[in-house]
Amino acid sequence: MQRIAVMGAGAVGSFFGGMLARAGLDVTLIARGEHLAALTRDGLFLDSKHFQERIRVRASGDPAAVRDAEMVLFAVKTTDTAEASRAIAPHLAPGAVVLSLQNGVDNVAQIQASAGIAAFAAVVYVAVSLPEPGRVRHEGRGDLVIGDPRREQVAAIAETFERAGVKCRTTDNIEGELWKKLLLNCAGNAVTALGRATYAVAAQNEFACRVVAEALAETRNVSLAAGVQLPADSADAAGVVDMFKKYGPATSSTSQDIERGRHTEIDSLNGYVARRGEELGVPVPVNRTLHALVKLLEQSL
Hints:
N-(1-d-carboxylethyl)-l-norvaline Dehydrogenase, domain 2, ten-stranded mixed sheet, 10 strands
């Protein structure tokens, strides 16, 4: 795959799009506001753990810019999934691959329901932020997990990323992998956002660690009740805390949204677990509380 478009070029979309562009692929970042202006004027600056480099990319504010892409990285906020799906649907080239790089576990279903697009799901592990327009700061990891019965296309997607220096593992259990990531999001995102703390700071606080453990246990119970087969290496509470320590000064996407005065994806994280828990008869008081407190905080933005 040589022609790539990124629908929703925030921190995550810009990082992976930038890595592909750095490898010589033709990449168009679809962004908005000051970030779009900076990309158009100066290109994308990747401030990575491993290199600092300004990368030439195409930039657009028009969803129709996906028209020639062989692969579209779909990286909008989960709150924008339906609208963004409908916006790109009329412009997709025949056979174009749409890959969801989003938090949560039900985005592919939403994309299908909203626009009839048979998207692929990816699990994203990366710590990135946009400290200023046109600049992505990379603070940890930067790898993907993908899986789908359409094995031939999955192999082509993985090869495209691997050639660009992005680790991309394939799996026969993408649902379990999505829930494995949801465990981490539900354990850490709301706690760090509400506490205005980095991952490392939260990991050093015994009271925060108790909430992390309880949110994690509830999410795991909901996944099991839903019939999800979690991977054997899904983290327990101690593993999550150790992981957060390694994240150092990185902050969660929920924290970044709050800092910027934006609404969060909490409905797709702790809110989703709270809803599914109620449907399945699984007690979820901690997830429900974390969801409610972040929603309350959003009201003051």
